[in-house]
Structure formats: C-alpha cells, structure tokens
Design a protein that fits this description.
Strand content: 5-15%
Distance between the termini: 16 Å
Helix content: 40-55%
Order of helices and strands: HEHEHEHEH
Number of strands: 4
Amino acid sequence: MSQNDALGFLGLLYPTHQVIIGEELRKRMEEVTLIVAANDLDSGESLRTLGRIKRAHKPLSQTFAAKELGKALGHSEIKFLGIIGKKAAMSYLLKLKKGETDEKTAVQ
C-alpha cells in the first residue's frame, strides 16, 4: 500500500459527491470535515484561502502537489478539496498514514 491508495480513495469519493472542489467548496465550507490542500501553493489567492481555512480551524492535510490531486480527480490541477463526512475523512487519513508507514518500511 502506498500514498497512491489515498489519492485513489479521493478519486472514488469524488463521483459520489463526498469530495467537493471549486465554488462548491466555498459555498459548502461549513459541511466539510477535512480540507486537503496542495503542498505547492504559491499564488497569493491560494495562500489567502489557506489562511482563511486555518482561521476557521478546519482540519487540514497538505501531502500532495496540485497536479497529483488533479490527476486523482480527473482535472489538470486542484489546489483545494473538501471531504464531506467523518467516515470518509477518517478513511482518507488512515490510508494516508498507512502509505507513509509503508514507504518508511520499504526504505529501510
């Protein structure tokens, strides 16, 4: 298992509307359990959005680049996405943690 499993999981959640992006994310921010942001944010607008998310005290994960997130959801790049639902968010975090553990074990 690798972190690709976490990206694949996001790809499975997206068509079921448990992952939201773009304007829908802005409109439904209060429903979001976990925000996944790209780890390569560089524009002023993206950094301001990240600041708003942190001030709202939303749980945040920044593991993947915008292109990786985009590829998982069938887009060119995604800077922010929201996971709706506690079960889906916990499952994503568990897959992410398992992927990190497996990668460390493989290196040793």
